[in-house]
Amino acid sequence: MLSNDVPIETVSKLLGHTKLSTTQIYTRVLEHKISEDIDNLRFV
To answer: Residue 1 in contact with residue 11, Cβ under 8 Å?
Structure first.
C-alpha cells in the first residue's frame, strides 16, 4: 500500500492500530520509494 502512495496513517487505521509507531514496525520503506520521494521534493 505504501508503495502505491497510500499514506501510512491510512494503512495504520485500516490495520486497526491505535499508534502509528505500531504500523511502522511492520512496514519497510522500499529504496525506489525513497528515491521517488526525494525527486518529488526537487520540484517543490
So the answer is: yes
Write the pLDDT tens digit of every residue in 4-25: 889 999 999 999 999 999 988 8
- Count: domains in the chain: 1
Please state whether the predicted TM-score (pTM) of the whole model is above 0.85: no
Place of cell 492500530: 17
Residues 6+ apart with CB under 8 A from 6: none
Residue 6 neighbours by CB distance under 10 Å: 11
Do the Cβ atoms of 8 and 24 come closer than 8 Å? yes
Domain residues for the domain of 35 are 2-42
Q: Read off the C-alpha cell for 40.
A: 518529488
